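Example 3.2
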Amino acid sequence: MTNRDNTPPPKWSLRFFQWFCKPDYVEDIEGDLLERFEKRTNENKAAKWLFTLDVLKLFRPGIIRPVKSGQKLNNYDMISNYYKVSIRNILRNKTFSFLNISGLSVGIASCLLILIYVNNELSYDTYNSKYENIYRVIHNFGSDDEKPEDWDSLPTSEYQVWGNAPIASAMQQFFPEVDKVFRFTSDAPWLFSYNGVTYSESDVLFADSTAFDIFDWKVLAGNPKTALERPNTMVLTKRLAEKYFGNENPIGKSIIMDNQDPYEITSVIEVPTNSHFSFNALISMSTFRNSRPQIFDSWGYVDFYTYFTLKPGASIEQLREKTEDFLDKNFTSDFFYHIKYEPLSDAYLHSDAGRQPGPVGSMGNIYIFTSVAIFILLIACINFMNLSTARSVERAKEVAIRKTIGSHRGALIYQFLVEAILVTFIASMMAAILVFFGHSLLEQISGKTLPIKWLFSAQNAFIALGAILFIGIVAGSYPAFVLSTFKPITVLKGAFKSSSKGIWLRKSLVVLQFSLSIILLAGATVVSSQLDFLQRQDLGFNSEQVLVIDFGYDGEVQRKREYLKQQFLNHKDVEMVSISRATPGDFFPNAGTGVADPETGEITYKGPAIYEVDEDFIPTYQMTMVAGRNFSGDFPLDSANALILNESAAKLYGYPNTQDIIGQSFEQWGREGKVIGVVEDFNYVSLHEEVEPLSIRFGTQFNVSVVSLKLNSQDYSKTLSELESIWTEIVPHRPFDTRFANQNFDAQYEADERFGMIFSVFSTLAIFVACLGLFGLTIYSTAQRNKEIGVRKVLGASTGRIIALLSKDFIRLYIIALTIAIPFSWYLMNNWLDGFAYRIPLGYEVFAISAVITLIVAFVTMSFKTVSAALANPVESLRDE
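Structure, written as tokens:
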């Protein structure tokens, strides 16, 4: 039928009708539909839409053709046959099966291992039952001239978690919404003595008795409600309790602390490894209050972390609305101070506040690792699909013969899908074995305890089953739905060729695979280059061969400091000795410091960091004075009224010319005097951050805790042994607790180095999986062109020309992948590098290296087959002709 405008009905609607309608009804109903369509077209109505609507109305029982199978086998026999045939195909094609299963198993295992790591990172602090209701106070210290007009616009990076003591009690009194408040101090080393054995223990904190009202640490012994109420009581972690008491019950027993007072053990706990701060022991806060009561009323003394919970029905917004009133009522001082509240859920992955109580994670790294996991799985699946499509010609005859003897398309689809799912299942089982063995290696590389039991829950079992089905169906979709449409007569006549769609699909997947490989390799190159840059960067000081002895503010050592220095200097391998409160890379306080304003002469307060040192600290670490002088024994008053600033601090106070600040008045922590010198900026914190303002003052006897020795030795073992003898003779009660200064500073980059190792390992695995697929495709392409190669060799083609012929298609695809991968990888890695204040330039050479390495790896992979094909005797390939 036709209409006056020759307008055809919608093709897809008509085909859909022909597909679902019973064959006996098709001709009659189709005629009626077309007649109605012609009439509507002549009447200028929405004929096409109405035609589609008529077709949909016909999709109902009685008209829909029944689903019948021409095979009379029962379901069990049919499924059993599918599996038998699948296993035979897997065993018959050992090379392709090996490449498929190996690639998929490594891809799935890598994905699971990364998932284990990411899950652990996302689980930090979630063990707390009040996880959603725990907050902490973050603090901003400054001067009135730094006060922003809008506090909401001030980023949390301008705040620090480390704060004062009185904020806790003031909040509980002012805010009715606040339920429990908990404080703990920064960690400090202590001497632990029990049964004549003494060790120096780090990560020991003073903590409020409300600790167990906030955090759900597992209590192994003792009463958590009263554990930290009394002075001179202490809670130990399981590790420390076992170290000192073995299998004994430690509750009620005492440990002598710093060779002075006995502290009673009141509880033993176990802190989960996924806690954003950790410790070895908690000492009751009342112990600290009894020794230094004045600091608990000082808003300017910074040494506390404050956490709190809200009462039921209260919200953090209620506190934020009243914060200004709270500060106006409770805080009056010469410097400016503000607070914000940060949820516990932000503490590990989302906080950029300074002075954290423990290491923090990175959501950027989480995104990168998740992307790597997806990339590896994609590459593995691409291998599977590529090898399946590549074998389409080979399997075309199988399909044609099976169709000739009566097999239906549905049965062929099921067969191919079952085969793909079976391969995926086998690969998944192998992946589980790889995960079992790779888990401990990942823990070792990451430096974390990574729980794995959660993987084996019933819910995850169903997810795994669904994933196997999904991967199998996706990877087997092309052969299942395309190969099953081949016409037997065309294939058996030998006129069948791979479809252009199949070839383009395969090429597209190869481009995607190459692109992902280049992105991962470029990422690994950037990470490695940046970490190498951090190691080579000039820090502004020299910590090589500097031995640091930590004596933890021990009073006996402090009293003998000058005698110790002299005895160490008498050793032939010791060039210089310095005693200070901290060394570069150590934890340090900030100090409210006032310096005369360059215009008005009035004292202006800021909050730079503070180092307390002696006159030998700057020369020991080979720092450079850019103005003024160092502390000197020739000026006895330097110990009380002299201050040195770094260049950043001088600029902070308005003196871009460092010479101008020399002789200016200062005030700091009860001292008054003159600025006597400016030291060149040095990186006393990680290169993630710019050099910050630093004040350096002379450390009194009771404010120092470490000895730095500049060594020049050919036999460090002997030198350390002799230095230990000197130490033991002078202060026998104190362990010789040493480290090298450069190792201490480099420890700040441990997380970056572990990130780099993990990234490199999984990037290597991804490239390995890609090579497996590339090798399989090379085998296929050379097999398909076997006779062509033979003819060319007979006609005089050289081995190199044949290798070039076999490789040129992949080179084209590689170039396309390169143009896609470079901008994408540049964007990703540039964002990662933004986390460093000092970073490598992201130039073309990084991507050139990655491109060349990828190309070499691809050539080497292909050469295993292309070279052998080029060297083969042409008689073998032409024998059938």
